Automatic annotation (TrEMBL):
Keyword Oxidoreductase included in the entry's annotation: no
CDD domains for the chain: GLECT (cd00070)
Any one cellular-component term (Gene Ontology): extracellular space
GO molecular function annotation: lactose binding; laminin binding
Keywords: Lectin
PANTHER family: GALECTIN, GALECTIN-1
The name this protein goes by in its record: Galectin
Family annotation (InterPro entries): ConA-like_dom_sf, Galectin-like, Galectin_CRD
Length: 135
């Protein structure tokens, strides 16, 4: 069972706002997850850096989930994370997508569920949340 971190609801993030997450990656990390969406069943962005999990090595896998139905996986091969290191990730909410800002790299993921607001955020896996802010 994947360890569950904090869960945030009623965030009310609208297009033009950003969510910045900082934390520590476990020294023996296999993967961790950050989910953004309407609630736990409607995830606009499932952000899953994999050090070594599900056949992926040093790859970021992103997806969306509508109830039990996953979308098509999107893979980013730029992998700025280190086991035992710290991570700072900013999610910029836009009308049609989410921009993910990583150290030295950024990419966008489409708003497949047409969510007008991001209310839900959680973390899971080999990551300890240290701070969480939005603007």
């Amino acid at each position: 069972r994947v360890p569950q971190g904090p869960v945030c609801t009623n965030l009310g993030l609208k297009p033009g706002q950003r969510l910045t997450v900082k934390g520590k990656i476990a020294p023996n990390a296999k993967s961790f997850v950050m989910n953004l969406g309407k609630d736990a069943t409607l995830l606009g962005l499932h952000f899953n850096p994999r050090f070594d999990a599900h056949g992926d090595v040093n790859t970021i896998v992103c997806n969306s989930k509508k109830v039990e139905e996953w979308g098509a996986e999107h893979r980013e091969t730029v992998f700025p994370f280190q086991k035992g290191g710290t991570a700072e990730i900013t999610f910029g909410v836009n009308q049609n997508d989410v921009t993910v800002y990583l150290p030295g790299h950024q990419f966008t993921f489409p708003n497949r569920l047409n969510l007008s607001v991001i209310d839900y955020f959680d973390t899971q896996g080999d990551f300890t949340l240290q701070s969480f802010s939005w603007e």
